[in-house]
Each structure stands twice: as structure tokens, then as C-alpha cells.
Amino acid sequence: MMAIYGPGVKVGNWFETALSEEFRIADTKKLRESGNLLLDRTRAIYDRFYQEQVLGPPQEVLAFGVVVQLKPVRINVCREETKDMNLALSVVITQEGVIRRFKTINELCDLSVAPSPHPAIRSSFRIVSPDDENRSGQYLTYGEKFRLQAMDPVDEPMYIWSGPKRLNLTLPLEKPFFTMNRGELTLPLGLVSHKNLGPSAIPNFYTHFYCAHQDPDKRFENEGKTIKENDPLIIVHAVTNRNLAVENTLANTLFGPEFQVSVETYKNVFKRETWKNQWKFSY
User: Could you tell me which residues come within 8 angstroms of residue 78 by beta carbon, excluding any fewer than 6 positions away?
Assistant: First the structure.
């Protein structure tokens, strides 16, 4: 038996589809004009995070108040050409940050080691005192505590931090990517706003780091001495007594594949830190 379709149904469906398409086009046009399209927001984020940053002022030794890049001495990974990539510790915006329409560095951002063709906002940090005292110009020495401040936003200081595991053995902060060492989750790195530091929130000392000489046999004699630019060293998280580490694991971020970072100590059979814990400050 031949099916009979009423013309009214066909016209009604066509009209409803056409009307929906018209509304969709109108909404898209409004979003484009206001700059709220996902493509426009993502492009704005890229432009902001890759905005060129002036380092320094350059000098032979490190000092409080200077803007630097923190680079791994080397990445010992097979089939990865990293010599000419100018890798540096960098800030990564997460998908949640894009969805929530953040345009600057914020607490939802992650940290990684990423190629840095030129010093940018995402790959530059300011060395600041561990308290609110202004010590700009004073030399930083081995064993002296400091904080690393992100370059954006200017009116809301953001610091790199980590912390010990909670009483229930969960990690101190949530991240989209994690690494493991001998079956145990490593401590992650995050960013915290100055306004969220305090006894009832994230303790201020969770943002404290200090530098140790690369050679364990020379650490005691170099305690209190100035630190030269580009000298290999170990960066220790003061609270956990673990070292800042670059992992041989890639994370697929919005900026592309980048090396993950953690707070974990890696030593060889001679009880010396491996390449994962070796860093240098550069102007």
C-alpha cells in the first residue's frame, strides 16, 4: 500500500528547520560581533599568553625583582629533538579556563615545560621575596627562600605553589594531567592568587622554594653564596623538601604536546639528582 504524506507536515517541518537555522545564524553573528565565539576567545588567549616579555634587567647573578625564564638543563628523551626548542617552564590554560572565558593567567592554569621561541608572558616569571617585603635588587643566594610570580595579571599576583598530600593521601590540588613515580602519584604544581594565601586557605609557605648547588658535595660550602645566571642548580620546594622536576611524559595541552612538571626528587645510584631535577635561570 502506497504511503500518503500530507503537504502540511512537509511545509511545517521545512518552516521549523528554516526558522531554527535563522536563529542560529543570528546568535552566531552576535557572538562574533562581541568576540565571544570559541575561536575568537582561543585566538585572544594565544595572543595574550604569547605576548613578548622583556627579561631582566640582565646581570651576572640572580636578584630579587628580576624577570627570568626557568629552563631545564637538558631533556634526556629518546626520539625527541629538544636542543633547539628553547624549552622553559610555562603556564598553560586549561579547557575549563577557556569555557569559563578567562583571558589571563589564573588559578585554573596548569604548568608545563614548553618550547619558547621568545620570552613570553606564559614562559617568564619574576623572582620575589617569600613575604610581602620588597627586596628588589638584593642578590638571591643558595639556600635563601623565594617565590616565582607569574607575569599576568599585574593587579593580582599569582605564585607557583605545591604542597604535601592531605591526611586522606589525596593530592593538594586537582589537575587534568598527573605523573607517577614507582607507582605513586607525584606532587603537582599549580598557581595561587595572593588573595587566597593565608592560614584558612593555602599557607603562604607552600609557595616557597630555594636553590641548591648541583653538586651535593659542594652544597654546604656554597650556602649563602650568590647564584650565577645559567648555572645548573636544583630547585627545592621548601615545605615538602622535594625538587622541582621535568617529567619525560608529554601532555596534550591547548598549546600542543608539552612536557609535564612535578615536585619529585629523582636520584641515580650515586645519590645525585638526575637530569629531571636540573634547572637554570636565564635572562
Answer: none
